[in-house]
Amino acid sequence: MEYEVELKLLTNEDAGEVIETKLLPQLNASVTKEALILTNHYFDTPDRRLRQHDIGLRIRGNNQKFEQTLKTAGKSIGGLHQRPEYNVYLDEAKNQNVKLPDLRLFPLSAWPKTIDVDDLQGKIETLFTTHFARKVYLLEFPNGDIVELVWDLGEVTSGDKSVPICEIELELKKGNTSALFDLAKRLVGLLPTSIGTDSKAARGYNLLDGLPVKKYLQYQQKQPENIQADATVVASLLTTLLQDFQMLSSEIRRQYSEGVANNIKQVLIALVENLAKFNQHFPCPPLNSIHIQLKTLVNGWSLVIQQNNKDAVCELLNQAQTTQLQLDIVQCLVERPWFSED
């Protein structure tokens, strides 16, 4: 088993050139490059049993080499994901099926006790596929930090429906999570970006099943009774609010709605209030600046939604300062002990 610690940034088709010509020359790091063409088939049962357990199952093909992967539920804070991952290479010479996973190749300990692996094996089927070109940059820094930066361009497909893939993933291979955030903030300064919270698998399920986005969220009910009781409770609350902001931002980019715009304003106000309380009891020096910037964002948001203009809303969401602010909040939460504790 490996643990994947990853940040995802959604961007545009200029990312490949910007990485090569602007980002890499800035870095004091040795760089190893690789180009891949990846085809991925995702599997589940008709009743979405794996999805219900927050499990992803796929077979990835690259130049006639195949690997089956199982990703199980992990931790996520505002776009930074820490998730157990199990990988098994498949070999057609050993009569291994490269079109359907053999679930018994994964360790039994990888599965929740509520899943009967033998029963599951007989019911899984291909649900959707992803096809994309990937450029891989393995970055090794003098302090020992190692980060894999990948640039993916392609699409998720289910039947006659598809959605584009246009994203950068930063995965920590060795060292401190601050290396991920340093790279992410450099990219935010070079490209239009937003934080991605949905995996490719999640987008495939959304495409396949047309899963609805939450239309109304009762933010005021999420405040803990005693903010001093448990730092993890408050961190969880802030994480939920941040993820709500990211999810609603993604929804409003697709289709402007006054209701969603007002929900985003509620989330931002709740973030301002709870961030101040959090910083009072569990001080994190950067939160002072973040709190001021958040209040400025609330004021800016109030102005743009009065215009009832999708373009103005999207322009504010795509500003580097907005993504940078989200990254700063996530970093403050992640670099506290509760994210790494089991």
Automatic annotation (TrEMBL):
Residues 2-211 form the CYTH domain. Pfam families: CYTH. SUPFAM superfamilies: CYTH-like phosphatases (SSF55154). GO terms for molecular function: inorganic triphosphate phosphatase activity; metal ion binding. Gene3D superfamilies: Hypothetical Protein Pfu-838710-001. This is CYTH domain-containing protein. It comes from Paraglaciecola arctica BSs20135.
